[in-house]
Amino acid sequence: MNFDKELDARGLSCPMPILRAKLTLDKMASGEVLKIVASDPGSVQDIQAFSSETGNALLSSTTDSNKVYVFFLKKK
């Protein structure tokens, strides 16, 4: 998937991945896509809730075999 910016949130625990995502999205233009890579299992539920609350579309949410979580958010 194409994206405009990438946020590496591996090693960060709740609520830091969400806070960093918010700060990054605030600097992005409407319609741009942010790729977030995280290692905190709680980020799956947190990113889904963040997307619902803010209106930023969660385009994709995947987990690889190394327990790395990858999300694509499109800024509203």
Report on the architecture of this protein.
By secondary structure, this protein is of the alpha+beta class. It has one domain: TusA-like domain (Translation Initiation Factor IF3, 2-Layer Sandwich), CATH 3.30.110. It is built from 2 helices and 4 strands, in the order E-H-E-H-E-E. A 4-stranded mixed β-sheet has the order 1-2-4-3, covered by helices on one side. Strand 3 (57-63) and strand 4 (69-74) form a beta hairpin. The longest helix has 12 residues, at 43-54. It starts with a strand and ends with a strand. The model has no long low-confidence stretch (mean pLDDT 96).
Topology, pairings included?
Layout lengths: L4 E5 L6 H11 L6 E6 L4 H12 L2 E7 L5 E6 L2
Parallel strand pairs: 1-2
Antiparallel strand pairs: 2-4, 3-4
Tell me about the biggest sheet? 4 strands, mixed
Side by side, the strands of the main sheet go 1-2-4-3
Which overall shape is indicated by the principal axes computed on the Cα atoms?
Answer: globular
Any guess at the CATH architecture? Answer: 2-Layer Sandwich
Number of strands: 4
CATH superfamily descriptor: TusA-like domain
Radius of gyration computed on alpha carbons: 11 Å
From N to C, what is the helix and strand string?
Answer: EHEHEE
